[in-house]
Amino acid sequence: MTSSTLEPHKAKRGEQTTLVGIFVNIGLVLVKGITGWLGHSYALIADAMESATDILTSILVWVGLRTASKAPDTNHPYGHGKAEPLAAIMVSIALVGAAILIAVQSIQHIQVPHEIPAPFTLVVLAVVVVVKEILFRRIAKVGDEVESSAVKADAWHHRSDAITSLTAFIGISIALIGGPGYESADDWAALLASGFIIVNAYHIFRPSFGEIMDETPAGDWQQELKVIAMTVAEVKGIDKFRVRKTGFEYFIDLHVTVPGSLTVSQGHAIAHAVKAAIMEAKPAVYDVLVHIEPD
């Protein structure tokens, strides 16, 4: 049993992948911003802005993971795990803000004539798409392995950046192929990208908000734990079963029915046996509260 609601090795992995994303984004902001300015592409500049928000939100995720890894204290007896989904919610809000800013400025640029983007901007965008997709897959894999909504949110932020870059690539390609009259194609691409970003923000927000609200986690393992509890001697049935996720770990409350003729000491021993069986089967379970009901 760890002394924190957030297993140290999981927190460490999450922090490491988040830091990698921060340093990659710092480089991409500079490359995309300078290239967009020199190449007369607002879509690429908007892409740089999206990467800049990636840096800020990744810092939020890192802070959230660090906070969630703190040990329980007097004011937080269940630990600080809620900081982790809270960080993910803040990421989703930042994404919506970035999407609105990009959309507003895209509309403004569409209404003002400007030069066709330079061809070399396509090379930069192609590289960015590849880098961002690799980063997304790496971080998303870690997020799944450690069951972190904040790390998953950070991964999806990278995916939204890849989508923004891809739409910019398509828009600039249309402008270059179409020639005069198609100058605003990359602005339309940036506007389209803002829609994709909002959709991704929702996918980040929904599970994180559910976790904050103690929504029952998805998955079949809940039924599996009921079966495990039933394997304990003298357990006749499961009356109630509740699960909530805090950080990377789970808290379980369940009522088990046992023969009414058993003594208090025997019932107490059965409760400990049920708890031990569940926690041995599922290391991600932090605590199990067992209530004994007479059959």
Automatic annotation (TrEMBL):
List, for all copies, the residue spans of the domain called Cation efflux protein transmembrane: 19-213
Q: Chief location of this protein? A: membrane
Pfam family name, one: ZT_dimer
**Annotated localization:** Membrane
Q: Which GO terms describe its molecular function?
A: monoatomic cation transmembrane transporter activity
Question: Member of which family?
Answer: Belongs to the cation diffusion facilitator (CDF) transporter (TC 2.A.4) family.
- NCBIfam families annotated for this entry? CDF
Q: What is the lineage of its organism?
A: Bacteria, Pseudomonadati, Bacteroidota, Cytophagia, Cytophagales
How is this protein named in the record? Cation transporter
Native organism is Spirosoma aureum
Q: Which residues cross the membrane?
A: 20-38, 44-65, 86-104, 116-135, 162-182, 188-205
Q: Which domain of life is it from?
A: Bacteria
